[in-house]
Fold this sequence. Notes:
Elements: H1 2-19, H2 27-38, H3 43-53, H4 57-66, E1 79-83, H5 86-104, E2 109-113, E3 125-127, E4 130-132, H6 137-148
Parallel strand pairs: 1-2
Antiparallel strand pairs: 1-3, 3-4
Helix pairs in contact: 1-3, 2-3, 3-4
The chain binds FE2/S2 (inorganic) cluster.
Amino acid sequence: MAVVIILERKELRSILTSSFPREKTYLLPVLHYIQDEFDFIPEWALQIVSWHLRVPASEVYGAATSYSDIRFVSNDNQTVRVCSGLSCWYMGGKGIYDQLCSDVGNEVCVEVTNCAFTCSMAPLVEISGQWFSRSTVQSVLNQILRRSD
Length: 149
Ligand code: FES
């Protein structure tokens, strides 16, 4: 496993060097590129992004964690993320989160995520990378069932 990570690190450095200018303005494009390649952003990749763009690692981490579409875990397992922004949380998101944790929390990874900037469609829920608006507990459970078939 460690060998694979070392190879990926070297490869990522090389790809970033050849594909992205070493300018801070490329932070989000680089993060999205990595997510497209890995399906999520491995923690070690943040260090490489920091090195490549010459941006402090804390700033890279801060940017990456403030965008709800950036994931730090793979979508291999079914993951449900409930928007915890104010609109979503009080339009039913909290109830959805609590109910999912008690009903399917042992089978599905249930998390909260930051505002997805689609507040007018609250409550938003992301299921394995796909967003659903005006969600209810039942609509989320239906999606989970549909995906597990
Ligand atoms: S509060 Fe959920 S999208 Fe903004």
